[in-house]
Amino acid sequence: MNNQNDHRKCCSFCGAPDSEGNPLLAGNGVYICKNCVLSAYKIIMGDVDEEIESVDRELLTPRELKAALDQYVIGQDRAKRILAVAVYNHYKRIFKQGVIEDDDTEIAKSNVLLIGPTGSGKTLMAQSIAKFLDVPIAIADATSLTEAGYVGEDVENILTRLLQAADGDVKKAEQGILFIDEVDKISRLSENRSITRDVSGEGVQQALLKIIEGSVVNIPPKGGRKHPNQDFIQIDTSNILFICGGAFDGLADIIKRRLGGNVLGFNQEKRGKMDDQEVLHYVESDDLVSYGLIPELIGRLHVIATLNEITKEDMVRILTEPKNALVKQYQKLFAIDGAELVFEPAALEAIAEMAIARKTGARGLRSIIEEIMVDIMFDLPEYAGYEIVITEETVKNGAEPLRIKKTKKSA
Fold first, then answer.
1. Which residues of 354-381 are buried (b: 16+ CB within 10 A; e: fewer)?
2. How many other C-beta atoms are found inside a 10 Å radius of the C-beta of residue 155?
3. Cα–Cα separations (whole angstroms), residue 328 to 76, 219, 331, 351, 352
4. In angstroms, rounded to a whole number, what is the distance separating the alpha carbons of residues 142 and 180?
């Protein structure tokens, strides 16, 4: 029987947890999963036969996917559960649909819409999922997209990015993930259609419909504008998972108006006291239409997950707990120069408070630490053999950190 520590063992290469479908091999304090072994075999020996390729398609369960996300994304438990189930069902649809014979039922693709404030982890969740599944991912900003023929970036160019992320492997790209951020910024200004041409709003939404629902698209291999004499690569988007994200500022007010008109008595009073974050959990398709997304696009984003605003406690955990936590990164930089970096708990709380005040979410933590650390790191080569302690005064008032000379322990 496995002990409790077995559940915390993860692949030292990709971070995947131990599972029946993707077991770990242990050696000298490190672990490697079956998928990484097969990937290494392919790199060293070249293409593998169909039998090994099919073994490589073992899927992580939703529980395993969420455990993998937990290593990098702090909080957002409900959103991680929803995303893990959606991703599992999507890839099960691709690789396992033929398991049940004599069944004409075809499973439709379910794309995902993530709603949450800036810096709440939408992009990180998509990147982490792609990493653990070993599939290519491309990230595009919806605000930079325009309809074909207008100045800007064609919507279809995001497929070129995905193909590049797959190292030119069309088949691999067709099973990848496309994350479209700031999708709320391409909403119509009102529910009434504009008389003039809406190049970066409704027009972009219409252009996205074709590739999101699943179609064969001709793309230029190196991106850029199409021209008649150009060679094209065909990409089938039927099995590409689209994850759209946005802050949707003002959506809570739309939901409140709907709830206020439909709810009477005690419940109305109770819901009226809810903050904007709680209200977002009641979002419905009609609210998104009122916000400015076209119904056809909403109909192709079947799974909706709402992310919470990050609290001060979560900010502190983000600084210290994930595998790639900022504090760990800076501690490694100091260790390379022979110094030890320590953050006092009060200092971490002060950094979290500054990030919340700037309303940048977790994304703003790095810039805050950079500001604090630049002068300290300027003299870092001279601190070899010292323990450098970042205090609350260092964070708030720019005071010098504590420097403690480390004594060598006698053998």
1. bbbeeebbbbbbeebbeebbeebbeebe
2. 25
3. 22, 41, 5, 15, 16
4. 6
CA distance 91 to 85: 10
Q: What pTM does this model have? A: 0.73
Least confident of 151-155, 315-319, 362-366: 151-155
What are the distances in angstroms from CA 103 to CA 28, 99, 226?
Answer: 48, 10, 41
- In this predicted structure, the answer to whether residue 411 has a pLDDT above a threshold of 50 is no
Residue position matching structure tokens 């077995």 = 6
The sign one gets for the Cα dihedral 356, 358, 361, 366 is: negative
Residue located via tokens 């590049």: 164
Among 111, 91, 127, 74, residue whose Cα is nearest residue 305:
111
As given in the structure block, the two tokens for residue 61 are 């369960």
DSSP three-state, residue 243? strand
Q: Pseudo-torsion of CA 202, 203, 207, 209, nearest 10°? A: 20
Tens digits of per-residue pLDDT, 99-127?
A: 566 566 777 788 999 999 888 889 999 99
Q: How far is CA 356 from CA 21, 65, 249, 303, 365, in A?
A: 41, 29, 17, 29, 9
> Which candidate, 116, 118, 123, 96, places its Cα nearest to that of 107?
96
Cα angle 322-305-285, degrees, rounded to a multiple of 5? 165
